[in-house]
Amino acid sequence: MNFHVLTLFPEMIESGFHTSITGRALENGTIALDTINIRDYSTNKHMRVDDYPYGGGAGMVMQAEPVHRAYQELCEKNAGKPMRVIYLTPQGRVFTQSIAEELAKEEELVFLCGHYEGIDERALELIVTDFISIGDYVLTGGELPALVMMDAIARLVPQVLNNKESAEFDSFHDNLLEYPQYTRPEEYMGRRVPEVLLSGHHAKIEEWRRQQSLIRTRERRPDLLENNPYLTEKDKKYLKDTM
Ligand code: SAM
Fold first, then answer.
1. 3 state SS of 119
2. Ligand 1 pocket, 58 CB below 6 A?
3. The domain that contains 12 carries what CATH number?
4. HSE (CB half, 13 Å, CA atoms) of 200?
5. Is 40 left (phi over 0), alpha (psi -120 to 50) or beta?
6. pLDDT tier at 165, thresholds 50, 70, 90
7. Domain of 110?
8. Mind listing the pLDDT tens digit for each residue in 121-131?
9. Rg of the chain's alpha carbons, rounded to an integer?
10. Can you tell me the distance from the alpha carbon of 48 to that of 15, in angstroms, rounded to the nearest whole number?
11. Euclidean distance between CA atoms 149 and 89, whole angstroms
12. 18 and which of 23, 175, 178, 205 could share a cystine (Cβ 3.0–4.6 Å)?
């Protein structure tokens, strides 16, 4: 998987992504990161990339030309390989685990990060395939949203997580939240680890975890249980009996 990021702040993306699990995956070549500084494509002698909005109003707008030129050079470098171009914007569809799963199947992903009041609409019309938001709030730039998305997508790429870090039972697997996790010691501040987890009885542990997932999802995200196609008859009975 190759991540390409068009940004005015490549150092933010580089330092965020070259850390921990994604950093390890970059080092061993499972994924690759290519940051492109949009400012390098300014044709202005002062390397400006923004200007006042037509029609007036607060703030500055990133100009179409540097963004478009940066993208065109990336296309040439990539010899016309098909690429989804994601513009991070509060006006997009809200990012979810299922979007991460869909995007993890791609080989090339381009993230376009806006700043100030955003990017001239014409550049967006020319290059963007997907408009994605990370939530209903407004940030100063698209770099943190790009990192959020890239992290969620990268950990679904085969071999990025090792066996110990498997994504299989994480929250949103089966559209449920994950069960509670415990590690040593067996007792902390008078609170014991649930006995079943110490029993070594795998079937019972699995059943307990499923039940905890169901209870936790009902308590914290009941919306996930509505029309959830992954609920078995046994799950439904358990939920009914524990109402
Ligand atoms: N004027 C824009 C609007 O009202 O839609 C907001 C611009 S915001 C201050 C600057 C940049 O931050 C955006 O171009 C976008 O790239 C990024 N951004 C801000 N909030 C975001 C969010 N919730 N999800 C994704 N990107 C976001």
1. strand
2. no
3. 3.40.1280.10
4. 0
5. alpha
6. confident
7. 2-154
8. 999 999 999 99
9. 22
10. 24
11. 12
12. 23
